[in-house]
Specification:
alpha/beta, Spore Coat Polysaccharide Biosynthesis Protein SpsA, Chain A, nine-stranded mixed beta sheet, globular
Length: 332
Protein backbone atom coordinates (compact mmCIF):
# COMPACT_ATOMS: atom_id res chain seq x y z
CA UNK A 1 0.00 0.00 0.00
CA UNK A 2 1.62 3.23 -1.19
CA UNK A 3 1.25 6.95 -0.65
CA UNK A 4 -1.05 8.42 -3.23
CA UNK A 5 -2.00 11.77 -4.69
CA UNK A 6 -5.76 12.13 -4.56
CA UNK A 7 -7.52 11.97 -7.91
CA UNK A 8 -10.34 14.51 -7.88
CA UNK A 9 -13.61 13.62 -9.58
CA UNK A 10 -12.71 9.95 -9.99
CA UNK A 11 -15.31 8.58 -7.58
CA UNK A 12 -15.90 8.88 -3.84
CA UNK A 13 -12.96 9.14 -1.45
CA UNK A 14 -13.24 7.53 1.98
CA UNK A 15 -12.36 9.75 4.95
CA UNK A 16 -11.33 7.96 8.12
CA UNK A 17 -9.47 8.83 11.34
CA UNK A 18 -6.45 6.74 12.37
CA UNK A 19 -5.26 6.98 15.98
CA UNK A 20 -1.46 6.62 16.22
CA UNK A 21 -1.01 6.75 20.01
CA UNK A 22 -2.59 3.30 20.44
CA UNK A 23 -2.21 -0.05 18.64
CA UNK A 24 -3.46 0.41 15.08
CA UNK A 25 -6.99 -0.76 14.39
CA UNK A 26 -8.37 -2.09 11.14
CA UNK A 27 -9.91 0.61 8.91
CA UNK A 28 -13.23 -0.64 7.57
CA UNK A 29 -16.28 0.00 5.37
CA UNK A 30 -14.16 0.60 2.28
CA UNK A 31 -15.83 -1.71 -0.26
CA UNK A 32 -16.93 1.07 -2.60
CA UNK A 33 -13.76 3.18 -2.50
CA UNK A 34 -10.65 3.33 -4.68
CA UNK A 35 -9.04 6.09 -2.60
CA UNK A 36 -8.75 6.67 1.14
CA UNK A 37 -7.82 9.84 3.04
CA UNK A 38 -6.71 9.07 6.59
CA UNK A 39 -6.69 11.83 9.20
CA UNK A 40 -3.73 10.88 11.38
CA UNK A 41 -4.48 11.49 15.06
CA UNK A 42 -2.40 11.58 18.22
CA UNK A 43 -4.50 11.30 21.39
CA UNK A 44 -7.48 12.60 19.46
CA UNK A 45 -5.68 15.56 17.90
CA UNK A 46 -5.03 15.75 14.12
CA UNK A 47 -1.38 15.73 13.09
CA UNK A 48 -1.46 15.09 9.33
CA UNK A 49 -2.99 13.40 6.30
CA UNK A 50 -2.18 10.08 4.67
CA UNK A 51 -3.69 9.55 1.22
CA UNK A 52 -3.79 6.00 -0.14
CA UNK A 53 -4.86 4.21 -3.27
CA UNK A 54 -7.18 1.34 -2.40
CA UNK A 55 -8.06 -1.91 -4.13
CA UNK A 56 -11.72 -1.99 -3.10
CA UNK A 57 -11.25 -4.45 -0.25
CA UNK A 58 -13.59 -4.10 2.72
CA UNK A 59 -10.80 -3.20 5.15
CA UNK A 60 -7.17 -2.19 5.51
CA UNK A 61 -5.41 -4.40 8.05
CA UNK A 62 -3.03 -2.98 10.71
CA UNK A 63 0.17 -4.44 9.12
CA UNK A 64 -0.59 -2.63 5.86
CA UNK A 65 -1.36 0.58 7.75
CA UNK A 66 1.91 0.28 9.65
CA UNK A 67 3.81 0.04 6.39
CA UNK A 68 1.96 2.99 4.88
CA UNK A 69 2.55 5.40 7.78
CA UNK A 70 6.31 4.82 7.95
CA UNK A 71 6.97 7.67 5.55
CA UNK A 72 4.12 9.90 6.69
CA UNK A 73 5.20 13.35 7.88
CA UNK A 74 3.74 14.33 11.23
CA UNK A 75 4.77 15.68 14.62
CA UNK A 76 3.50 14.72 18.05
CA UNK A 77 1.48 17.65 19.41
CA UNK A 78 2.22 19.11 22.80
CA UNK A 79 -0.60 18.87 25.30
CA UNK A 80 -2.23 22.30 25.76
CA UNK A 81 -2.09 24.13 29.08
CA UNK A 82 -5.63 24.10 30.44
CA UNK A 83 -7.63 27.28 30.96
CA UNK A 84 -8.94 27.96 34.47
CA UNK A 85 -12.14 25.85 34.77
CA UNK A 86 -13.94 28.79 36.37
CA UNK A 87 -13.91 30.69 33.06
CA UNK A 88 -17.39 30.45 31.52
CA UNK A 89 -18.18 29.87 27.85
CA UNK A 90 -21.01 30.72 25.46
CA UNK A 91 -21.31 28.82 22.17
CA UNK A 92 -23.22 30.72 19.46
CA UNK A 93 -24.65 28.65 16.59
CA UNK A 94 -26.36 30.62 13.81
CA UNK A 95 -28.60 28.41 11.68
CA UNK A 96 -31.10 28.71 8.84
CA UNK A 97 -33.29 25.75 7.87
CA UNK A 98 -30.72 22.99 8.37
CA UNK A 99 -32.39 20.85 11.03
CA UNK A 100 -30.44 17.65 10.41
CA UNK A 101 -27.07 19.39 10.48
CA UNK A 102 -28.03 21.33 13.61
CA UNK A 103 -29.12 18.17 15.41
CA UNK A 104 -25.83 16.45 14.58
CA UNK A 105 -23.87 19.50 15.75
CA UNK A 106 -25.74 19.71 19.06
CA UNK A 107 -25.33 15.99 19.66
CA UNK A 108 -21.57 16.39 19.36
CA UNK A 109 -21.62 19.27 21.85
CA UNK A 110 -23.44 17.11 24.38
CA UNK A 111 -20.39 14.80 24.41
CA UNK A 112 -17.83 17.43 25.41
CA UNK A 113 -15.41 16.51 28.19
CA UNK A 114 -15.57 19.75 30.15
CA UNK A 115 -16.51 20.75 33.68
CA UNK A 116 -16.81 24.48 33.04
CA UNK A 117 -20.05 26.46 32.82
CA UNK A 118 -21.18 26.33 29.19
CA UNK A 119 -24.28 27.79 27.58
CA UNK A 120 -25.28 27.01 23.99
CA UNK A 121 -27.26 29.60 22.02
CA UNK A 122 -29.02 28.55 18.82
CA UNK A 123 -29.90 31.59 16.72
CA UNK A 124 -32.67 30.80 14.25
CA UNK A 125 -32.37 33.01 11.16
CA UNK A 126 -35.67 31.76 9.71
CA UNK A 127 -37.88 31.31 12.79
CA UNK A 128 -41.19 30.95 10.94
CA UNK A 129 -40.48 27.32 10.03
CA UNK A 130 -40.53 25.94 13.59
CA UNK A 131 -38.16 23.00 13.04
CA UNK A 132 -35.11 24.70 14.52
CA UNK A 133 -36.87 25.59 17.76
CA UNK A 134 -38.12 22.04 18.15
CA UNK A 135 -34.62 20.62 17.77
CA UNK A 136 -32.84 23.21 19.91
CA UNK A 137 -35.20 22.98 22.87
CA UNK A 138 -34.86 19.19 22.96
CA UNK A 139 -31.29 19.55 24.26
CA UNK A 140 -30.28 20.61 27.80
CA UNK A 141 -28.51 23.94 28.39
CA UNK A 142 -29.53 25.23 24.96
CA UNK A 143 -31.20 28.61 24.55
CA UNK A 144 -33.27 29.22 21.42
CA UNK A 145 -33.19 32.78 20.06
CA UNK A 146 -35.16 33.83 16.95
CA UNK A 147 -33.63 36.45 14.65
CA UNK A 148 -35.96 37.22 11.74
CA UNK A 149 -33.69 39.70 9.95
CA UNK A 150 -32.08 37.63 7.18
CA UNK A 151 -28.31 37.39 7.33
CA UNK A 152 -25.74 35.37 9.19
CA UNK A 153 -24.23 38.49 10.75
CA UNK A 154 -27.59 39.54 12.20
CA UNK A 155 -27.86 36.07 13.72
CA UNK A 156 -24.32 36.04 15.12
CA UNK A 157 -24.76 39.51 16.59
CA UNK A 158 -28.00 38.43 18.25
CA UNK A 159 -26.00 35.62 19.81
CA UNK A 160 -23.27 37.99 20.96
CA UNK A 161 -25.87 40.25 22.57
CA UNK A 162 -27.45 37.35 24.46
CA UNK A 163 -24.25 35.58 25.50
CA UNK A 164 -23.11 35.62 29.12
CA UNK A 165 -19.82 33.73 28.90
CA UNK A 166 -16.36 35.20 29.40
CA UNK A 167 -15.34 33.35 26.23
CA UNK A 168 -17.76 33.48 23.28
CA UNK A 169 -17.42 30.78 20.62
CA UNK A 170 -18.90 30.80 17.12
CA UNK A 171 -19.64 27.38 15.65
CA UNK A 172 -21.28 26.61 12.31
CA UNK A 173 -24.24 24.24 12.32
CA UNK A 174 -22.60 21.96 9.73
CA UNK A 175 -19.64 21.15 12.00
CA UNK A 176 -19.34 18.10 14.26
CA UNK A 177 -16.78 18.32 17.07
CA UNK A 178 -14.94 15.60 19.06
CA UNK A 179 -15.11 15.37 22.87
CA UNK A 180 -11.86 17.29 23.49
CA UNK A 181 -12.75 20.18 21.16
CA UNK A 182 -14.00 22.74 23.67
CA UNK A 183 -11.10 22.50 26.12
CA UNK A 184 -8.52 22.55 23.32
CA UNK A 185 -10.18 25.62 21.78
CA UNK A 186 -10.23 27.67 24.98
CA UNK A 187 -6.82 26.52 26.28
CA UNK A 188 -4.83 29.33 24.56
CA UNK A 189 -6.78 31.89 26.61
CA UNK A 190 -4.65 30.80 29.57
CA UNK A 191 -2.21 33.29 28.03
CA UNK A 192 -3.63 36.74 28.86
CA UNK A 193 -2.34 38.27 25.61
CA UNK A 194 -4.49 35.95 23.45
CA UNK A 195 -7.89 37.39 22.52
CA UNK A 196 -8.97 35.19 19.57
CA UNK A 197 -8.55 31.49 18.79
CA UNK A 198 -9.48 29.82 15.50
CA UNK A 199 -9.71 26.07 14.98
CA UNK A 200 -9.06 23.44 12.35
CA UNK A 201 -11.72 21.94 10.07
CA UNK A 202 -11.45 18.52 8.43
CA UNK A 203 -13.82 17.17 5.75
CA UNK A 204 -16.66 15.07 7.11
CA UNK A 205 -16.96 13.38 3.72
CA UNK A 206 -15.40 13.48 0.26
CA UNK A 207 -18.09 11.54 -1.54
CA UNK A 208 -18.75 13.95 -4.40
CA UNK A 209 -16.58 15.88 -6.83
CA UNK A 210 -17.74 19.18 -5.35
CA UNK A 211 -16.65 18.14 -1.85
CA UNK A 212 -13.28 17.06 -3.20
CA UNK A 213 -12.73 20.28 -5.13
CA UNK A 214 -13.62 22.37 -2.07
CA UNK A 215 -11.16 20.42 0.05
CA UNK A 216 -8.26 21.34 -2.24
CA UNK A 217 -9.50 24.92 -2.74
CA UNK A 218 -6.94 26.93 -0.75
CA UNK A 219 -6.80 24.19 1.86
CA UNK A 220 -10.55 24.12 2.42
CA UNK A 221 -11.45 25.76 5.76
CA UNK A 222 -8.60 24.24 7.77
CA UNK A 223 -5.22 25.91 7.98
CA UNK A 224 -2.99 22.92 8.54
CA UNK A 225 -1.63 21.08 11.55
CA UNK A 226 0.83 23.65 12.97
CA UNK A 227 -0.21 26.45 15.29
CA UNK A 228 0.61 30.06 14.40
CA UNK A 229 -0.18 33.55 15.63
CA UNK A 230 -1.11 36.87 14.06
CA UNK A 231 -1.03 40.35 15.59
CA UNK A 232 -0.72 43.99 14.57
CA UNK A 233 2.79 43.41 13.26
CA UNK A 234 1.48 40.65 10.96
CA UNK A 235 -1.32 43.01 9.92
CA UNK A 236 0.89 46.05 9.26
CA UNK A 237 3.39 44.17 7.08
CA UNK A 238 0.75 43.77 4.36
CA UNK A 239 0.92 46.62 1.86
CA UNK A 240 -2.05 45.57 -0.27
CA UNK A 241 -4.92 43.36 0.93
CA UNK A 242 -4.55 41.83 4.39
CA UNK A 243 -5.04 38.06 3.85
CA UNK A 244 -7.21 37.38 6.87
CA UNK A 245 -8.53 34.29 5.06
CA UNK A 246 -5.24 32.64 6.07
CA UNK A 247 -6.22 32.81 9.75
CA UNK A 248 -9.11 30.34 9.87
CA UNK A 249 -12.84 30.99 9.97
CA UNK A 250 -15.63 31.73 12.40
CA UNK A 251 -16.99 28.26 11.64
CA UNK A 252 -14.81 27.44 14.68
CA UNK A 253 -13.56 30.50 16.55
CA UNK A 254 -13.45 31.81 20.11
CA UNK A 255 -13.26 35.38 21.41
CA UNK A 256 -12.40 36.86 24.80
CA UNK A 257 -15.59 38.85 25.31
CA UNK A 258 -14.09 41.63 27.44
CA UNK A 259 -11.34 42.26 24.88
CA UNK A 260 -13.11 41.80 21.55
CA UNK A 261 -16.87 42.16 21.88
CA UNK A 262 -16.55 45.12 24.26
CA UNK A 263 -13.94 46.95 22.16
CA UNK A 264 -15.57 49.79 20.15
CA UNK A 265 -12.66 49.73 17.69
CA UNK A 266 -13.71 46.21 16.68
CA UNK A 267 -17.48 46.18 16.98
CA UNK A 268 -19.45 43.06 16.06
CA UNK A 269 -20.12 41.37 12.74
CA UNK A 270 -20.73 43.80 9.87
CA UNK A 271 -24.36 43.15 8.94
CA UNK A 272 -23.75 44.19 5.32
CA UNK A 273 -21.51 41.14 4.93
CA UNK A 274 -22.03 37.39 5.19
CA UNK A 275 -24.49 34.72 4.11
CA UNK A 276 -28.07 35.82 3.61
CA UNK A 277 -27.20 39.27 2.23
CA UNK A 278 -25.94 40.24 -1.26
CA UNK A 279 -22.23 40.06 -0.35
CA UNK A 280 -22.69 36.37 0.52
CA UNK A 281 -19.55 36.14 2.70
CA UNK A 282 -16.67 38.17 4.13
CA UNK A 283 -18.08 38.93 7.57
CA UNK A 284 -15.50 36.85 9.42
CA UNK A 285 -12.60 38.16 7.30
CA UNK A 286 -13.55 41.76 8.06
CA UNK A 287 -14.04 40.87 11.73
CA UNK A 288 -10.49 39.46 11.89
CA UNK A 289 -9.23 42.54 9.99
CA UNK A 290 -10.66 44.91 12.60
CA UNK A 291 -9.45 42.71 15.46
CA UNK A 292 -5.84 42.80 14.26
CA UNK A 293 -6.02 46.49 13.37
CA UNK A 294 -7.09 47.13 16.97
CA UNK A 295 -3.87 45.37 18.08
CA UNK A 296 -5.37 42.19 19.43
CA UNK A 297 -3.58 38.84 19.06
CA UNK A 298 -5.02 35.76 17.34
CA UNK A 299 -3.80 32.17 17.52
CA UNK A 300 -4.69 29.31 15.19
CA UNK A 301 -5.08 26.14 17.26
CA UNK A 302 -5.20 22.98 15.11
CA UNK A 303 -5.80 20.79 18.16
CA UNK A 304 -9.28 22.36 18.36
CA UNK A 305 -10.81 20.70 15.34
CA UNK A 306 -14.10 19.54 13.89
CA UNK A 307 -15.56 17.67 10.91
CA UNK A 308 -17.11 20.05 8.36
CA UNK A 309 -19.76 18.98 5.87
CA UNK A 310 -18.71 20.39 2.49
CA UNK A 311 -21.29 21.25 -0.18
CA UNK A 312 -22.39 18.11 -2.02
CA UNK A 313 -23.40 19.52 -5.43
CA UNK A 314 -21.55 21.58 -8.02
CA UNK A 315 -24.21 24.36 -8.12
CA UNK A 316 -23.86 24.75 -4.34
CA UNK A 317 -20.08 24.84 -4.63
CA UNK A 318 -20.09 27.42 -7.44
CA UNK A 319 -22.39 29.66 -5.42
CA UNK A 320 -20.21 29.27 -2.33
CA UNK A 321 -16.92 30.08 -4.10
CA UNK A 322 -18.54 33.01 -5.91
CA UNK A 323 -19.70 34.36 -2.54
CA UNK A 324 -16.24 33.84 -1.06
CA UNK A 325 -14.75 35.88 -3.90
CA UNK A 326 -17.29 38.67 -3.38
CA UNK A 327 -16.77 38.64 0.36
CA UNK A 328 -12.98 38.74 0.09
CA UNK A 329 -13.14 42.13 -1.61
CA UNK A 330 -16.41 43.35 -0.10
CA UNK A 331 -14.82 45.41 2.66
CA UNK A 332 -11.78 46.77 0.77
Amino acid sequence: MNHHRLQIGQGPIAVRALELSEPLLRVGDLETYDQVRLALMWQGMPVGWLDLAHDGAATIAPPLLQTAIKNAVWTKPEMPIALDPEVSVSIVIATCDRPEALKRCLESLMGQKSERAVEILVIDNRPTQGQTEQIATAFPNVRYIPEARPGGSFARNAGFAASRGEIVITLDDDVVVPPNWLENLVAPFARPEIDVVTGNLLPLALETASQQIFEIYDGSLGRGFASFEADYQWFSQRFLAVPTWELGATAIAAFRASSILDDPRVGWMDEMLGPGVPSGAGEDLYFFYRILKARHRLVYEPRAWGWHEHRRSMPELRRQLFNYSKGNIGYH
